[in-house]
Write a structure and sequence with these properties.
The chain is built from four helices and six strands, in the order H-H-E-E-E-H-E-E-H-E. With 140 residues, it is of the alpha+beta class. The radius of gyration is 14 Å and the shape is globular.
Length: 140
């Protein structure tokens, strides 16, 4: 099965995990907060997956949506990746906790995650901000 199938399964597992309280072990700077003097110091609204895709020059394909998340696939000159947007911070933490044991690399921002090859995510970070994280390592 493809990348989207794997992450579709992870998204469903992550949705089920919303019932379990989780510690915030995966937070970091995302470049999404507003600057002082803009909006009274409040955090900016999280970007949608469509907005993230536009910043990277991608047209989303294979979009899927549920109450707690939306996802779509991208392919640009930087590589292939999946964008996942979340309706809550708790939902994002739950999804990451479920996804990390599967391995992989994640670019994590405010209520969004990009999933792809490490070099692709490093390149995307220039346009999107966020923090690159890695899941469990499998193999020798």
């Amino acid at each position: 099965m493809g990348l989207l199938h794997h992450f579709g399964r992870t998204a469903l597992l992550g949705g089920a995990a919303l019932l379990v309280p989780l510690a915030a072990g995966c937070t970091g700077a995302s470049g999404e907060a507003s600057h002082p003097g803009h909006g009274g110091g409040k955090a900016a609204a999280p970007a949608t997956i469509e907005q993230l895709a536009a910043r990277t020059g991608c047209t989303l394909t294979g979009k899927r949506a549920a109450d707690e998340l939306r996802q779509g696939a991208c392919r640009t000159g930087e590589g292939r990746y999946t964008l996942v947007g979340f309706s809550t911070d708790q939902g994002q933490r739950a999804w990451l906790e479920e996804a990390k044991p599967w391995g992989g690399s994640y670019l994590v921002g405010t209520r969004w995650v990009a999933v792809g090859a490490p070099q692709t995510l490093q390149a995307l970070r220039q346009d999107l901000g966020g923090e690159v994280m890695n899941g469990a390592h499998h193999g020798g």
